[in-house]
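Homework help board

Subject: predicted structure for assignment chain

Our instructor gave us this sequence and asked us to write out the predicted structure in token form, then describe one feature. I got the tokens but I'm not sure how to describe them. Can anyone check?
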Amino acid sequence: MVLAKKVLAVKVLVIEDDPHVAGFLVKALREAGASVDHAADGKEGLFLASAAPHDVMVVDRMLPGLDGLAIVRALRAAGDRTPVLILSALGEVDHRVEGLRAGGDDYLVKPFAFSELHARLEALLRRSGSEAPATRLQVSDLEMDLLARTVTRAGRPVDLQPREFRLLEYLMRHAGQVVTRTMLLEHVWDYHFDPQTNVIDVHVSRLRRKIDRDFETPLLHTVRGAGYVLRAPA
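My token output:
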């Protein structure tokens, strides 16, 4: 198979139990520039889909534990509008209609060519406004590579835990804006209420030590009574 050459610089979740199909998809998508998460059964797939945001999902219809349509229905019921491409060996019209009515955005029948899957993902991303997102973020001398999952400041690597990375990514995407605790709870922790804990303060404090402690000019600031702001020096 000839892989599409256009870069697909997005985060993709593949939920597929067939190890050969999954291995091919993960390898091909990464070669196309995507960051890929993979789940081998339905329950793990729903967990990964709910635990972190993705730009697009590729979901096999027949999965152990929880079938693909049940996953899509659960995500849509929770308000998750991430584009979903359903994969299935079931190609009859009634099967395709059932997949789309369950909340799928597109339906691709196995066996398939990767070039077609790639093109369909591009189309879904265009419709969702997620095509060609930024793969690098920068605020002053602080830089984040979203594909390599690395952070540097003044060229020096900054070692972050996964939650710290998500926190910094959100702050960098909103650089110069005051970000409230509620915003962080909803977009970094996926909480829609205040759990009355100091989880945000603890993580912000750790993040501040890592990105500011050894540098003359601080970038992460607390706005008393409002929240936090990451901003370049004037």
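Reply (TA_rk): Your tokens look well-formed. For the description, you could write something like this. The first strand starts at residue 11 and ends at 15. That's the kind of observation they're looking for.
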